[in-house]
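Handout for the seminar on molecular recognition.
Each group receives one record of this type.
Step one: identify the two inputs.
Step two: read the structure output and locate the region that could contact nicotinamide-adenine-dinucleotide.
Step three: write two sentences on what you found, then compare them with the reference statements printed after the record.
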Amino acid sequence: MTQYSMSPTGVKFQLPTPKDYSKEFERLKKVVAEQRVLEREIVVVMGLGFVGSVMAAIVADAQDEKGHPSKFVIGMQRPSTRSFWKIPLLNLGIPLVSSEDPEVPLLIERCVNEKKTLTATYTYEALKLADVVVVDVQCDYFKESLGNVREGRADMEALEESLEIIGQHISPETLVLIETTVAPGTTEQVAYPIIKKMFKKRGIESDPLLAHSFERVMPGKNYVASIRDFWRVCSGVNEEATRRVVKFLKEVINTEKYPLTVLDRPIESETAKIVENSFRATILAFLDEWSLFAERNGVDLIKVIQAIKVRPTHSNIIFPGPGIGGYCLPKDGGLGLWAYRHIHGFEDEIFKITPMAIDINDTRSLHVAQLTRDALRNMGRPIASAEVLVLGASYREDVGDTRYSGSELIVRRLTEMGAELRVHDPYVLHWWEFEKQDEYPASSHSLKRFFRGQEKLKDLRVEQDLKKALHGADAVILTVRHKHYLNLDPDEVVENTGGPIAVIDCFGILDDEKIRRYFELGCEVKGLGRGHVKRIKDQVREESRMQNEKCKLQNAK
Ligand SMILES: NC(=O)c1ccc[n+]([C@@H]2O[C@H](COP(=O)([O-])OP(=O)(O)OC[C@H]3O[C@@H](n4cnc5c(N)ncnc54)[C@H](O)[C@@H]3O)[C@@H](O)[C@H]2O)c1
């Protein structure tokens, strides 16, 4: 049966058939032979996701001292129905992720169509041609329950499969650079033995040249710079691997301005990534309790944070928004816990803060459903059957990445409570976590399993027309600081909804003037960490009462 893969914009691509593979390898061999004449190093980037697709282009854009391209990159992606579309699109020079960074499309177009230093493929045979393999596949952490990261496990399947395939194909001189965020210990204790075993089967006696260097990419306005113009940490399993990884990174990344940190062993580089992200998860989780404190005691946490931030020692204090999403922060600490027990074999529980932070972050957004219920209740409307619009599906501003976004849990909880949900996001065309909730991120991995009454959500579509989305809404939840939502005019919003609504601000999007205006228009406003709205509401009510009194007096005269 012919199988297809559909791109997010709805273009259908036929998956390759067995006879396509040899033709594809011939194509690659031919182009690689031409590139070798030009003395370019051949780099295979495995996994064309958020990281790999842009990293591949950055490597393909590298040049030597004379300004000539120094690398030829083959982006390799497994041809699954979910992901195959990435290959033909990239080969047209089209970015695979939508973001606010204008450099992403320019870079990809330049490397694919002008410099012709980047191509994409589905055949693992490409690995045979590589001088360097960069591994950018995912390594997930599967949680068995909501809000308890301890009940979970690292899902190494994709990574282990990739490493096996690498070991079956590469030449012994190929450098394998693992960029995937892994459970600390993976490079030496999982990857090394897998590749070594494959080498042995092929009669290769030498040690694999393995290294680790994690990505600090931030998909968004500075997507490209967050990979190319940023500090890197790296380490190799032996002297030669370390030498090779340092050389490679110096050639593709701006290490002159952003010097490399070379650590003694890969476990140190792997731990650095996990600690870095656990630190961030922890400072975000820490503010959850203060957010509730603020709501219950008339405090605007947004202003409190701004007041603290001016102190240079506290400049990285950040407001958490509705849950901490993105691919990394919800899982990385879990990989650390799991490694301690399952790679290194310890039995005791040394981790307290890291799992607690993840658990707090994973459930923070449930509170937004309560705020929505309360705001509607104050307006005399039940949450059941209320039309609720969520503005923003992504986990962060100005990017189309919905992985573990707080908005997903808000939609799920409110649906469970009987509300009718709709969503708008200018960067997200399909919210696969709902549309394909029985198979995405993988069958039985959907957060759907923690809620009841979720079936209808597979019909949830992301509206692109904001006016249409607003029409007839009873409640509007501002979940993401997309630039499109920062300056929404309350009068226009209420005109478009067709009457007063409940407005829930999850990310400090509304200033006091807008909050006041919503109240003047008869709306209810609530917000995460925004206890002062009650004060504004009381002021508006008092002013309106005085106004009424004045009118009554004037009428009586
Ligand atoms: N997204 C981020 O912001 C970010 C930031 C820093 C680090 N990271 C880390 O980088 C790694 C990759 O993340 P991502 O966001 O790019 O993930 P992703 O899921 O977007 O991409 C992974 C890609 O690898 C492909 N893949 C899986 N197995 C394969 C195989 N055997 N052969 C070829 N391709 C295969 C998948 O189909 C997918 O396209 C993760 O470890 C992540 O934690 C991500």
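Reference statements: Residues 549 and 555 are 10 Å apart (CA to CA). The first strand starts at residue 4 and ends at 6.
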